[in-house]
Amino acid sequence: MTVTDWTEVTNHLDALYAASEGLETIFAGRKFTLDGHLVGSIGEVVAAYMFGLELMPASTLGHDAMAPDGRRVEIKLTQGKSVALRHAPEHLIALHRPKGGPVRVVYNGPGGVVWDACGKPQKNGQRPISLTRLRALNAALTDAARLPLLREPPV
Predict the structure, then answer these.
(1) How far is it, in rounded angstroms, from Cα 46 to Cα 32?
(2) Does the pTM of the predicted model rise above 0.70?
(3) What is the pLDDT of residue 1?
(4) Which of 3, 38, 101, 124 is found 20 to 30 A from 76 (Cα to Cα)?
């Protein structure tokens, strides 16, 4: 098993955020938000570390990882104010990393609860939900509904 140098990972993330800010300064009025596959992959490796998840191959339809107890897990990371889902996951871990970090767990629980609370489908088929709503849903969960946190966020 390879040991990950999370300090190096943090340095790379900070450089990405600095590049994003720099481009937004140069091109006033344009957003250079980190999103898509980049942020998704960061969220997946961080959640795997935090919760002891086994990551599925990239772009596996329906879920990103398998929990030690067999639950299929969808992972979302955002630097914004919401996430979006294409389907009802068995279990959802939603993370937030503002510029400068650290990662915070916004939601860790059954996916159906979130799916039922999501907004209407957008043109791309995704259903959005705000981090504020996710935090409220998370606060109502029992510890048994959550995956146990094995390690604090590394970045």
Answers:
(1) 22
(2) yes
(3) 59
(4) 3
DSSP state of 59: T
If you write DSSP's letter for every residue of 15-54 in order, what string do you get? HHHHHHHHHHHHTTT------THHHHHHHHHHHHHHHT-E
pLDDT digits (tens, 9 = 90+) for 2-44: 789 999 998 998 898 889 889 989 998 888 877 777 888 999 9
CA distance 147 to 75: 12
CA-to-CA distance for 139 and 20, rounded, in angstroms? 33
What's the burial of 70, exposed, middle or buried (CB within 10 Å: 0-12/13-18/19+)?
Answer: exposed
Closest by Cα among 77, 76, 73 to 91: 73
The domains found in the chain, sorted by start residue, are 36-145 (3.40.1350)
Q: Closest by alpha carbon to 61, among 22, 89, 96?
A: 89
Residue 33 and residue 120: Cα distance in Å, rounded?
A: 24
